[in-house]
Structures are given as structure tokens and as C-alpha cells.
Amino acid sequence: MSSDAEHLMAQAEKKLNAGFLSSLFSSSNRYEDAEELYTKAANQFKLAKKWKEAGDAFSKAADMQIRLGERDEAATRFVDASNAYKKVSPQDAVASLKQAIDILTERGRFQMAAKHQKTVAEIYETDLVDLEKAMTAYETAAEWFQGEDASALANNCLTKVAHLAAQLEQYQRAIELFERIAASSLENSLTKWGVRDILLKAGLCHLASGDLVGAQRAAERYCDMDVTFAATRECGLYKSLLEALEQGDPDVFTGYVAEYDKMTKLDDWKTTLLLRIKKSMDQSFT
């Protein structure tokens, strides 16, 4: 299969390197033919699991579409290239997606651009483990989603930023984002049910920052923000943990966490923050 793909690539190059008279009278046909051959070669490389070669071929096909003035088609080919590169080279995957995003934003297709920008963020987060670049990319995606009135998608991206900010111990940034997301979610009947979890996350960031006075004020403010919050298990946990921290009792703290976890399984992000808070208590206790 890869030999077939290489033959198709050679044919495409031959089309492009046609003589002067041929290019003078039929340049668009040359580019169309080359684009078709590059795309066929890319798909053959995909079948052979030659991902770098597939990405290169899709990129060449994208270049042909640009020469033909078909920029939307070029964006699609750049996305195809990125999907192939992602198997072997996350950096190349990001570079190809950015080329697609540039075309999409230029043409005013911001929701599609935001979707691909989110993918860029995910590659930075998971494959390249560059959390600062991931946060920047998620924030850009959120801005574009918000501009297209896709608030739920925007909040999803901002939640990722808040999670990563807390992971990097940028607690104030995380708190501000969680509070912003909570306020936005309260305005929508489909998302307001999840506000209790968002406010708990903001509260855990307050506790992790070590500012117990600020944490107490936040607890009161969150109950005012969402009138249902005070009666939730999330609020109960937050206030109980704050009380345990004020008492400086790690065992009481652990007991509250275990009791909550029996009824509502704690996710990895909350568990990480709770372990950090507990560790700081243990250090103070000793």
C-alpha cells in the first residue's frame, strides 16, 4: 500500500513539474490533479499506518487547495493532516491545526475554529504536557465559543482552564474562573443544576490557598449567589472542611471527606486538592 502511495506522490509531483507551456495553459488543472493525487496518496499512507507520510501528503493537498483558491477545502485538508500527525508528532498536529484555524477565523467560521482550538488545547494538555499553553488555547476557544453564543461550550473550556490553574497552584485564577462559570450557569435552566459542584470546586481552591477568612466569606457569598446551595451536600462538605481546618484536626477532616465520598464519589481533581489540603494540615499539626 505504501508503494502505491509513493507512486501517487510521484505522479502528483510530475503534474506540478509539467513543462512551461503546459503550466501556461492549464495551471488550475495541474493543481486540481495534484490535489487529488496527494489526497489519494494520503489515504493510502493511512491504510499502511504511515502517519507522518499521510500528514505530509494531506498538507501538500491543502497547499494545492490554497493555490486553487479553495480555502475552506484547504482547512479541511489541514485538519486531516493534523489527525494523521497526532499519531506520531503532536507538534506537527498542532502546527497543521493552527493553519486550519487561521483560515477559518479569516472566513468568519469562529465556532468551527473554536472546536479545533479546543483540540489544540487538548494536545498541549495531554500529549505535550504544556499546561500553560493548554490554558491559553482553552481560553481562546472559550472566547470564540462565547462570541458565537455557545455558552455551554465556552464554560466547558473555561472549566478546563480552572482545573489546570488549580493543578499549577494558581488558586486565585481558578477561583475567579469557577465563580464566573457558576454565575453564567445560573442563567441557564439546563446548566444551573451543576452550579453546586462548581461552587464546591471554587471553595476547595479557597481552602487549598490557605486563606480561611476568604474561604468563610466565599461560603456566605456562594449561598447568596445560589439560594439552593446552602441545602446541598456540596455546601455541607465545604463548611465542614473549613471547620476542620479552623480546628486544625486532620482526622476530623479525613472523616468528613470519607463520609462524603461514600455517597458521592470524588473525582480525581477534587481528590488531588483534598490531598494537598490534608498534607498542609499534617505539616502544621506536626
TrEMBL record:
GO biological-process terms attached to the record: intracellular protein transport; SNARE complex disassembly
UniProt subcellular location: Membrane
Pfam families given in the database record: SNAP
Membrane topology, from the record: Peripheral membrane protein
Keyword Protein transport: yes
Family: Belongs to the SNAP family.
Function: Required for vesicular transport between the endoplasmic reticulum and the Golgi apparatus.
Name listed for the protein in its UniProt record: Alpha-soluble NSF attachment protein
Species the sequence originates in: Allomyces macrogynus (strain ATCC 38327)
